[in-house]
Amino acid sequence: MSPLRFASGAEGWLVTDYRIARSVLRDSRFSTDRKLTEAPIRELPPILREYGTPPGMFNCLDGDSHARYRRLLAGYFSAGRIAEFAPRAVDIVDEQLTTMAEVLDSAGEADLLAVFAMPVSLRLICELLGVPDRLSGDIARLASVLFDLSASGDSMIATILELREILLDAIRHTRASPSSGLIADLARDPEIDDEELFQISQVLLLAGFETTANMLALSTFALLSAPDQLRRFRAGEVSAAAAVDELLRYLSVAHMGPVRAASESVRLGEVTVAAGQSVMISVPVVNRDPALLDDADRLLLDRPPVNHISFGVGAHKCIGQYLARTELEIGLTRLFARFPTLTLAVPPEQVPLRTDMLVYGVHELLVGVEG
I want to staple 312 with a disulfide (CB 3.0 to 4.6 A). Which of 142, 266, 317, 360 is the partner? Predict the structure, then answer.
């Protein structure tokens, strides 16, 4: 537990201890309400903070309100439902790999993030939700603003309003012409209005593609930078599930939180968190806590599974974790099967990292093929 000054100047705490982090994430005395929590790097525009958490924005709700949405959505992201969706994920991955092959053939190198990782992740979540393909470009553009830590308050508000109109238009079209997907199913529920459905959709969209897209690209970078581990993965000496679990622990793209606010005074270790104070958990550091595992700073794909916190813990554990795992397993397996001599096209130190974004990853990953 270390003192931390948040973006607003408020004093709070940073957690880098595995045991304490799990305790905070499981404790109902710590709230996710954005009216209460402090932002570590970039403050929310005052109008958004004052407005609080609207119905449907379930990731920032507590207690029964949060549980209601989890029950509503859980079936769409269950292990069984995602397993049924896996063949479609294979199709989308293979289509994007073909696009990547065409770029490699013509240019000799390709940006794996732009031609593979981002389109795969965005197409998958859009198809699950029933968001038309024609909107994917706008969604990616708007998400890049919302995740940019240097974005101004005015640009954030303008971006949210534009995204709202895009998704509300898609929701109205779905109500008028019923189709398939999560949005279409929820649109048939008379207790869910358009504004609520917009909030649900934007949470799932924004959380569902930026994280996994960057995890897919960053995992590729990590494997290409660790030839001994990549050789074992390509040879099938390590299962895809085990490899992905270790990559999720080792890379931790959620590098700015989660953040919780204490609703009352809470003792954590040797520190008392005062009522109203915020606590930020450093997922990358917690996932490398020596109390969790030995040799934590090494990428070892055959490591026995550990209870890392990359998907969170407790009531707010990521609802899309099975989708993310499946996407990563299929994506990495088929990528290295299709391109067995894939290599970085630039020195590792020249790969631009997303230290300036809410979700960690790469801004670009130039790759080529040997021979």
Answer: 317
| Cα–Cα distance, 235 to 225 (Å, whole number) | 17
Query: Nearest 5°: phi and psi at 70?
Result: -60, -45
DSSP code for 106: H
Give the orientation angle of helix 194-224 with respect to helix 136-146, to 10 degrees: 80
In the 3-class helix/strand/coil scheme, how is 122-190 assigned residue by residue?
Answer: HHHHHHHHCCCHHHHHHHHHHHHHHCECCCCHHHHHHHHHHHHHHHHHHHHHHHHCCCCCHHHHHHCCC
Amino acid at site 282: S
- Strands 278-281, 11-15: pairing kind: parallel
Round to whole Å and give the CA distance between 15 and 151. Answer: 26
For residue 71, give both structure tokens.
């029950």
Whole-structure pTM over 0.90, yes or no? yes
d(C-alpha 272, C-alpha 266), whole Å:
6
Q: 246-263 burial string, b = 16+ CB within 10 Å, else e?
A: bbbbbbbbbbbbbbbbbb
359 near 253, Cβ under 8 Å? yes
- For residue 167, what pLDDT band results from cuts at 50, 70 and 90? very high
Distances (CA, A) of 294 to 21, 196, 219, 252, 306: 18, 45, 21, 17, 11
The string of DSSP codes covering 200-230 is HHHHHHHHHHHHHHHHHHHHHHHHHT-HHHH
280 forms bridges with which residues in the sheet? 14, 259
Are 78 and 322 a contacting pair, CB within 8 Å?
yes
H or E, element range at 11 = strand 11-15
Which of these, 369, 251, 360, lies nearest to 301 by C-alpha position?
251
207 CA to centre of own chain? 5
